[in-house]
Amino acid sequence: MRELKAFDKEHILHPYAPANPTAEMQFVKSATGVYLELEDGRRVIDGMSSWWSVIHGYNVAELNDAATTQLAKMSHVMFGGLTHESAIKLAQRLLAITDKSLEYLFFSDSGSVSVEVALKMAFQFWSSQGNREKTKILAFSKGYHGDTFGAMSVCDPVTGMHSAFEGILHKNIFADAPECAFEASWSEEYIEDFKAKLEAHHKEIAAVIVEPIVQGAGGMRIYSPHFLKRVRELCDAYNVLLILDEVATGFGRTGRLFAYEYAGIAPDILCVGKALTGGYMSLAATLTTKAVMAGVEANGNVLMHGPTFMANPLACAVANASLELLLNSPWQKRVEGIEEILQVELGRCNALEIVKEVRILGAIGVVELHRAVDLAWMTPEFIERGVWVRPFLNLVYIMPPFVIPKEELEQLSKAIFEVIEAYEKR
Ligand SMILES: *Cc1c(COP(=O)(O)O)cnc(C)c1O
Questions:
Q1: Is 144 a catalytic residue?
Q2: Is residue 245 flagged as an active site residue?
Q3: 16 an active-site residue?
Q4: Atom of ligand 1 nearest to the CA of 146
């Protein structure tokens, strides 16, 4: 084990990390339910669902079965000129559970690529119809949409982790981040900056992209459905497409199957990923309307994208099983139950001076601090308390698997309180 870890440290790059990190990597031997088993046999509760994705927990019999059944048929086949049952069934399922205006779907391998495809759809929608002016995207500050170049160009230039590429990226337009809290009463002032940007630049804007209700990796911010509703209305008024990035929020995380449901709106283009396969494999999809595809295909054009592992049968089979499991489970009750416990248990953090705000929606809990976190110090503190939490910026946050039992969730929340309390005294 020590040799393996030494090799990792010497040769393997990890997310947003130096080539030879000083921080110790935790070695995971296996994972079951909500627990990760570390090299020394210690078990820690995963508060992160491996970045939003593992909604049913680890090592789930139904998902394992789906993978092995598909494996015996074929694990992969190209999607150019060929098709297969797992992809078709999954497309049927996704189109059935999303807004009925969405009628087409493109499978890709990751959330970032689903965003690239969404951007291509939006740009081609206009260019195929002969409009060469609409070459920009209107995005929001504090937004996060992925790590590939198109996706980076619509992430918050500062908190979106991509300031290193500032001069290289396509120059898009940014509106102020949504400030109206989830339950706050609405005022038109909240939307003024967005409206002004649209008014000034709509002729060059192909689409607006936004994470509905919860801005994730750019700041873990939760905002009013009314804001999203106004975004939809203004997109219509100014003739720009609306892309909703539900890669993090999709499949029940916020308490609705898709977060846009809170606002009673529908997107022109929708991105899903992360929890799509229950965290088993990398798979994403971009959904869109008949009208958008008709525009994309005007004058004999077609959507120009086609990943090698498009609609990978193994991933599609597991995604089918995951959706079936989710939709046949009392997921809404579970998410509500998590929210109630977080309100009480994580809410205790409000008593700490170092805490700026506690934000909770569905199975998402966020504690924002007045100062930046210290990962190197906090990580062993969390592990000591039997939990896996991975804070960033000034945010300590969790989005546990929906199946987390009450006791484990209380342990997770208690650990967060204690670690922040100890951090305050440092
Ligand atoms: C994680 C994320 C992405 C990128 O997905 P990857 O699978 O990491 O490429 C895009 N948008 C949002 C909102 C995300 O949370």
A1: yes
A2: yes
A3: yes
A4: 4
Q: Are residues 317 and 365 in the same domain?
A: no
Residues 323-368: tens digit of each pLDDT: 999 999 999 999 999 999 999 999 999 999 999 999 999 999 999 9
Q: How far is the CA of 144 from the centre of ligand 1 (A)?
A: 7
Domain that holds residue 309: 74-327
Residues 318 and 344 grouped into a single domain? no
Residues 182 and 193 grouped into a single domain: yes
In a domain, 65, yes or no: no
Q: Examine the domain organization and report whether 318 and 181 are in the same domain.
A: yes
Residue 21: pLDDT above 90? Answer: no
251 C-alpha vs ligand 1 centroid, how far in Å?
14
pLDDT for 161 equals 65
The verdict on residue 24 lying in a domain is yes
- Helices 313-327 & 61-73 angle (0-180, nearest 10): 150
Q: What is the CATH number of the domain that holds 364?
A: 3.90.1150.10
Pocket test for ligand 1, best of 49, 109, 112 (most atoms within 8 A of CB): 112
Does the beta carbon of 268 lie inside 6 Å of ligand 1?
Answer: no
- Domain count of the fold of the chain: 2
**From CA 411, how far away is CA 19, in angstroms rounded?**
34
Same domain, yes or no, for 229 and 276? Answer: yes
What is the whole-number distance in angstroms between the Cα of residue 1 and the centre of ligand 1?
A: 31
CA 422 and chain centroid, separation = 30
pTM of the model: 0.98
Q: How far apart are CA 101 and CA 268, in angstroms?
A: 8
Residue 104 appears among annotated catalytic residues: no
pLDDT tens digits, residue range 236-257? 999 999 999 999 999 999 999 9
Based on the number of CB atoms within 10 Å of its own CB, is 386 exposed (0-12), middle (13-18) or buried (19 or more)? middle
The CA distances from residue 4 to 14, 19, 37, 193, in Å, are 15, 16, 17, 52
